[in-house]
Amino acid sequence: MSDESQELGITESKSHKPGEWYAEVVQKADLADYAPMGGFIVTKPRGYALWEAIQDSLDGWFKETGVDNVYFPMFIPESFLEREKDIVEGFDPEVAWVTQGGHEELEERLAVRPTSESIIAPFMADWTRSHRDLPMRLNQWCSVVRWEATETKPFFRTKEFMWQEGHTAHASNEGAWEEVWTRLGQYERVYEDVLAIPVLRGKKPEHDKFPGADTTTTVEALMPDGKSVQGATSHNLGQSFAEAFDISFVDEDEEEQTAYTTSWGLSWRALGALIMTHSDDQGLVLPPTVAPTQVVIVPIWQEDTKEEVLEYSEGIADDLEDAGFRVELDDRDERNPGFKFNEHELNGVPLRLEIGPYEVEDEEATLVHRPDNEETVEDRDGIVDAVDEHLEEIYDKLYEAAEETLEDNVREAHSPEEILGTIGKHGGYVKTPWCGDEACEEVIKEKIAAEIVMQPLEDEGGSSGGEVPEPDHDECGVCGDPAAEIAYFAKSY
Ligand SMILES: [Zn+2]
Fold first, then answer.
1. Angstrom distances, CA of residue 378 to CA of 184, 263, 317, 356, 381
2. Cα of 109 from ligand 1 centre, angstroms
3. How do residues 168-207 score in pLDDT, each as one tens digit?
4. Which of 49, 84, 117, 403 could form a disulfide with 292 if both were Cys (CB 3.0 to 4.6 A apart)?
5. For residue 229, how far is its CA from the centre of ligand 1 (angstroms)?
6. What residues are neighbours of ligand 1 (ion), with CB under 5 Å?
7. Tens digit of pLDDT for each residue in 324-354?
8. What sign does the dihedral 434-438-441-443 (CA atoms) show?
């Protein structure tokens, strides 16, 4: 390894210093940079490409299921924000305000949207006249601002973040529930089928639901450092927003009815989870589904073999490109193969093809998997099919490793000492019977900053909210009072 490539490489250890390691991977793999204002980041082309890969999947699924994209202003008049009191209370400490435009002081302050219910709902009210206008399903891809005073962590914690927010109105609560589950299912699918991350589905406890919501459902992903990431949320807002913003309609019997609304969102925190879950001490690891470059071909030549090696490599690159793979032929003269290997490892290219004079002579190619360096030799003739299979294998490897981490890290506990000890020692989720009192969460939170990240649900997915299953033991794992619910405690991002 040359000095130059050592400088390129990751110096922190994922297992010993996950925070520093994560920051280094994000910067060295060219995903993002820190902006001059604390709490903001600059997303670089390679980072944005990952966000676009998520958008491509999700946006297509939204449209297939009746969603239209729209765009609303980033500013919300204070009087609009105040119409739903829970939203005001819930977001007030984090709202950024515009008080001046040019040299003029504004008559009414404008909030920089922390979420857009308060600006979208009044228009939905205008656009909803009869039951024939429902369901109405709108979505916008945008950024929102929440002025939190915490340390910047690219994609996990930033004052401004990219997301999509869906807003829908329905004639019945059943319709709203079906919507909630459709979107939660799509979030689960994007994690499991695109990002290679298994998730747990459930609901947030009452005290931690979205301001104004009846129920907040969530997908949670476990990170290798033992902390949970809230992957996306889908809220049944009941009628609180419809009442506050007068979203009503005339039903089939000519009666005036109040609508039911939902909202649901997935942010670029999904990128944080992606990077954190799969990457290692060599750098970024990406599933082939989202990798901007899926296959890199590195030709290995001496002066006297250069021409034939390059020609052979170009032929393979062309075949793979024609078959629809995202391929790069790294024929740079000024870099040696070792340097190129390290660089593409750092950048998370899932599959490397090594082509030297022996491969040319035997009409073969050497394939190396990024996650574990597994090496295979494949025939030139069947290279397109072979690459396809290897990319799938790589996806499966990543998913299975993450699944094993998740399965190994759900543990049960039945006393505060056991809950604290288990999370303290292993991280992960601790499943325990819970009485439903927020005070019991406080007890755990105060000691080790772990909280109830979700409650599992049975019979969900249809036209109702499902039920939290009854625990095996009937005493709250914290206070010992009767418990009728199950809660999952974990530290979280
Ligand atoms: Zn309790």
1. 41, 49, 15, 13, 9
2. 43
3. 999 999 999 999 999 999 999 999 999 999 999 999 999 9
4. 49
5. 24
6. 435, 437, 440, 476, 478-479
7. 999 999 999 999 999 999 999 999 999 999 9
8. negative
The DSSP symbol for 482 reads B
Q: How far is the centre of ligand 1, averaged over its atoms, from the C-alpha of 435 (Å)?
A: 4
- Whether 287 and 398 have beta carbons less than 8 Å apart is answered as yes
| 45-68 residue pLDDT tens | 999 999 999 999 999 999 999 999
Give 416 Cα–ligand 1 centroid separation in angstroms: 10
| SS3 label, residue 446 | helix
Reported as type and span, the H/E element at residue 185 is helix 173-189
Q: How far is the CA of 205 from the centre of ligand 1 (A)?
A: 13
Q: Give tens-digit pLDDT for 441-468.
A: 999 999 999 999 999 998 787 888 888 8
Q: How many of the other CB atoms lie within 10 Å of CB of 326?
A: 16
Tokens 């990128």, residue located: 271
The DSSP output letter for 193 is: I
| pLDDT computed for residue 7 by the predictor | 64
Tens-digit pLDDT profile for residues 10-20: 999 999 999 99
CA of 373 to the centre of ligand 1 (A): 48
Buried b (16+ CB within 10 A) or exposed e, 452-481: bbbbbbeebbeeebbebeebeeebbbbeee
**Alpha carbon distance 286, 270 (integer Å):** 13
> What's the 483 CA to ligand 1 centre distance in angstroms?
7
Q: How many CB atoms lie within 10 A of CB 2?
A: 12
Q: What is the pLDDT of residue 310?
A: 97
What separation in Å is there between the alpha carbon of 434 and the centre of ligand 1?
5
Ligand 1 mean position to 432 CA, how many Å?
10
Q: Are strands 68-69 and 136-145 parallel, antiparallel or unpaired?
A: parallel
pLDDT band at 2 (very low <50, low <70, confident <90, very high): very low
Q: Give me ligand 1 centre to Cα 415, in Å.
A: 10
